[in-house]
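Can anyone check this?
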Amino acid sequence: MAPPADGMDVDQPEKTGLFADLFFVVVPSDSLPESKALEVVEQLKLHDAEAVVDSLDGSGTLSLDDLTHIVSNTADFPEYYNADDKMKPVVKAQWIEHSLAKRKLQNPRQYSPDPKYFMSDVVVCCTGLPDGDAEAVQGAVLAMGGMFSIKLTSQVTHLITLSIDSDFCQTAAQKRMNVKLVLPHWIDDCVRLGRKISERPYTLPASELHTATPSTKIPYVYGATPVRGALDANPTSSPPPSPSVTRKRQSVFRNTKVALSKDLGVAPPHREALEEVIRNGGGKVVNTAAQCTIFVCKYREGSEYKAAARAGKHVGSLGWLYDLISKDRWTSPFRKLLHYPLAPKGIPGMQDFKISVSNYTGESRQYLENLIRACGAECTKTLKQDNTHLITAYDKSEKCTAAKEWQVHLVNHLWLEESFAKCKVASVSNSRYTHFPTRTNLGEVVGQTEIDREVLEKLFYPPEPDRIDDRSSDITKVGLKRGNSKTSNGNDVRTPAASRFVALEKENITPSTTNSRKAKNAATAKLQEMTPDIQLYEKERKRVGGVIHGGRRAKTSEEPSEAAEAPREAARKRTADDMDDSDAAAEAEKKKKRSKTGLPPVTMHLLVTGYDRWKDNPKAEDADKIALRQLGIILVNEAQRATHLAAHRILRTVKFISAMAYAPEIISTDFIDACLDADELEDPQDYKLVDKVQEKKLGLSLTASRERAVKNRGKLLEGREIYCLDKANGGPDTYQKIVEANGGSCIVYRGRKGVRVKSYRAGSEDAGSANTDVYLLSPEGDGNDLTKLWEQFRSMVEAARMTPRIVSTDWLIETAMRQEILPVSKYEIRE
């Protein structure tokens, strides 16, 4: 073959590898050492990619605009947020292996090292769950960054199930697969908290949710905590960390210029030591924010701070600088709350708060106490009646009981962290802050909240007035746009829902000052791509009862706390992008079949109590729930959600009594039998509950009680505090549910000193002399302990110029059943 003529190009062989035309940068880290990073580069090149190893510390000649992907097992490298702003995918090294194994590029979001995708190392498979529950679990896991498989493969890390009797569970045991068998309650609690908590209490076969008793101590996982090295924003009293003589030379400051602000308050000897450590690590100490790449200061104020923040410099606290030195590893100052400079006046509205901490230990407790002070609130070592908040890792302790008794706000640490992150007092009515998983110590997940970068820019370094107009056309703030937009196929995208998701899960999006129109378009495309997952996640997160329904059975049968969850409406179906072809084919077949025999619309939310068919027979219960859902009936466990209440007779159970406040249609459990036997939806009007014997015995009419409930609208006890002795039959939790269902508040009374009766709300509908009665629910008896408590209660109430009423628990039960406040003469207890 003749050589080519001069000046003519030689045809290059066409690149056909999976990664052809892609440019990767591999960032080394502790979990991806440089030797391994070089191997990854060679693997990428074998499949026609361009790839290099680079630390991306911002000092090299490599531009983010030139590359297509970043491979890193951590989000802690200097250019991470710039890459995120420019929509450059950052993926773990595992993404390469899985893409090659499945011969197609995988969804990068499922392999992101960003902590906001806290399920990114989880692959879930469901077995033995109703279809609607399995789909809800799938949607939640995908939205949290995990993956879902419809088949049990070697990649599955968690098998979500209610029982170990299913075929998948047996297969996993026989093949000795490395997979955890976990109750769906784990997914539910992770969604509610927005954090990945330990699977330990939910793991079958010996789940603590089934085996633990109320007195069983909740264990705490000791060891390194996420807040280590981030306990204090300004540790001026301690000398700076210094590498030992035998330690290798530090590299974290290589190619950096560090400016130390004058507001740090560091003593001259300490400051000199800091500067020496920086220089020994390859860095340079400069005097102004204009010269530096790292600016260290105490407060978010002053011209130097604003200039550094606006220019995209790395701005952090002294505590952050100490952490860089001690670990010799880069971490972003946005990652830990106290690694960023403090708000000079604390968090608006928190100056009058008195906050105590309970059930957090060691570093977690120290961190929370420092965070309270950084917010401008007072941190108290002990809990007193004048405290405003108690932050606790779980809600079963003497302090928690006292807080409820004194009407002190009981919240988890997320309330404090997110108030600080957004520089705004979070609402204590948000269920995320009052959720305490049954067997979990939330100290395990303390310190995982990041600073909200958008809030920082808005409040502390907004654009200079003469630059706002120049930036407005280029800056894209993902998720904050209001109103509707259109996708490329013409479908509506509800951006308000998307913005709520971003605010919850992505707390650190700040647009780069150099964003181009291309970045804006990419942001819109990314938002549209995420919208289905966002909407599904929001739907499942906000739904009462969470993402699952099945298997929540109390260890006792029917009395006070039945915990069997009910099926939920089928969630939107969504297939994971990472499924292989066989998975996708199986899911397509599943969808095709369901399109012909799809679930009917929900026509009834049914609350069931005292149903003998399900007593001690959980398998029959699960099967019947699935069959009822096929008929349009969803079983619920919350009285406020029920449109119908089913019982075989009038019962004095918590479910029945609480449901009366919401005026559901009351039907016989014969209705359930008839629907199941006929395999079709019967008319509930034909099965209205008739129980003349119990009506006569209790002196009530179900029809009249329901009519009064409609008028009361759940406000029968509104504005009232009902006190209850912890020795009351069934325990105070029983009566708390009944009182709260009727709009009141229930307080456990133990005769503590300093407890005071609060005045009833002025202007309540039944204000007047009758509303000065204050009730104490008590067992009958003449023991010395009871007599003493009665006397203390009377003294407390009379001191408030009100009338004490010590009554049996029957007064509350029959008041709630009749839906009218009954006179106390029949129920009052006297010595």
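Reply from J.R.: I decoded it. The mean pLDDT is 81.
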